[in-house]
Structures are given as structure tokens and as C-alpha cells.
Amino acid sequence: MPTDHAALRKKIASQTVIAPGVFDGLSARLADSAGFDALYLSGYGVSASQLAKPDNGFLTLPDMQMRIETICAAISTPLIADADTGFDDIGAAVLAYEEAGAAGIQIEDQQLPKICGHISGREVIARADAVARITDAVAARQDADFLIVARTDAREQSGIDEAIERGRLFAEAGADILFIESPESEDEFRQIGAALGSMPLLANMVEGGRSPLIPRTKLVEMGFNFIIYPIAAMAASAAALHAAYQHLLDGEPSGQRVSFQELSNMVGFPEK
Fold first, then answer.
1. Threshold 0.85, pTM exceeds
2. Cα dihedral angle (139, 114, 231, 36), rounded to 10 degrees?
3. pLDDT tens by residue, the chain, 272 residues
4. Neighbours of 57 (CB within 10 A)
5. Which of 114, 105, 183, 172 is nearest to 145 (CA)?
6. What are the residues whose beta carbons fall under 8 Å from the beta carbon of 56, sequence distance 6 or more?
7. Structural domains in the chain?
């Protein structure tokens, strides 16, 4: 289980951190072994993998806490975990995520029921209420190195200027990382970096989402130093599963698979 949260805080303050999305124990184990500095658990990933439902407010705090516990027991890499709007109790969510082993929590400013950040139709709460969520999260954490990721979804409803202003207010409230969700052009990413680049900034790269996929080097030049790819592995896994099941239906197993011994090694059986 990852325990050195201070190390991740120092890395985010001084270098670029790449965090792939994980969604269960096995995906987390594989990402952990790849050597990333951090991993990212999205509500989308848990809702899809555990419930086979959209990221639309179906998850509960116990759902996320159990998944975080499962993942953290399988890894040594720090995990940042999505808490959506805070499950109606920001303080309880922060404590639950800390106890489960996460290195940080992400809180957003959407109204309920929330919607995936790359689906249209999102609405956000008032500025003051949004800032209060971040203030409550900062006050609730027991470990000063537990990271608070503050996300705003205001871009769609109110435009990029409002989203940037909310980012400023979140920083004043004590957020450790700012997350302006779904900018819709490279120019908007540049505006965010220019306005908020003194803070650690998160860039969310979703294949097929509302934001353009921007090369990592360019994101760093713009001022982003925490870059997540939340569904890349899940999308690849879904494609592989679909192909494997289709091959079985057609009468033969897929040729694209790890060996039984390799799979056994991944989950902890000793090599023969």
C-alpha cells in the first residue's frame, strides 16, 4: 500500500507527473509495475467496471472506498481518486479516502446528479458553494500531504473565463492541484496555463472527449504538470475483451493474450 504521500506532493511541485487511469485491482497492479509516479481512479472507471452504468451519480461513497482499498492493497504507487461532488458529505469522503489509502481526492463543482465531464448537459453550483466544498475538504484531511484536487466543470455552462476564476478561488481555498475540466481548444489550455500556471495544473486527456488530445511536451510548455489518461486502459481492455469473447463465440480463443503462467504471476502466484 502506498504510504509516502509527501513524495508525490514534492514531485508535483517540481516535475511532470503522468497518471494513467486504473479501475480495478489487476489494472492497478499492471500500471504499478509499469513505473508511473501516480495512478488515477475515476468515477467513470468504477461506475463502468463495477456497475456497468454510466458516470451519472450512481456510485456511493462505500463503493468508492471499497475500490480504493482493493487497489491500494495491490500497489505501491500513490493513487489519486475521484470523489465526484463529495457524496453529500465532503468531510466524510475525505476521511474515507484517506483511511482507504488514497494519496489524494478530487472534488468537483457540479450539481446533482453529476454527469461525466466529457458529456454535454453539466450544470455547476454557485461559486461560493463550490469554494465551500474545497474549503471543507482541506479542513477535513488528517494528513497535510493528502492532496486536494479541485475540479470545475464551469467551462460548458459559463465559459472559460468563469472556469479560470473558479480555479483562482479554489487555489485561495487551499486546493493543491487545479483541474479545469474539458477545455475545448488548445487556446483555452493556453489561457488556463497563463492564468493559473503558478499552481500545479491537471490536464485530462480523454480519447474522443470534448478536449483536444495535446502532446505531453506541449502541455508541459503550457504550464500543466499533472497529466491524466483516465480511460485509455479501460478502453483498450474493453476492446480486448470484446475480441476475446467474439473469438470464443466463433469457436477459438483469441491469439492476443498473456499465458496462464504470466497471468498467474501478475496476481501473485510464484513462477514455476
1. yes
2. 0
3. 776 789 999 999 999 999 999 999 999 999 999 999 999 999 999 999 999 988 878 899 999 999 999 999 999 999 999 999 999 999 999 999 999 999 999 999 998 888 876 877 789 999 999 999 999 999 999 999 999 999 999 999 899 999 999 999 999 999 999 999 999 999 999 999 999 989 999 999 999 888 999 999 999 999 999 999 999 999 999 999 999 999 889 888 777 788 888 888 888 888 76
4. 17
5. 105
6. 47, 113, 114, 115, 116
7. 5-230 (3.20.20.60)
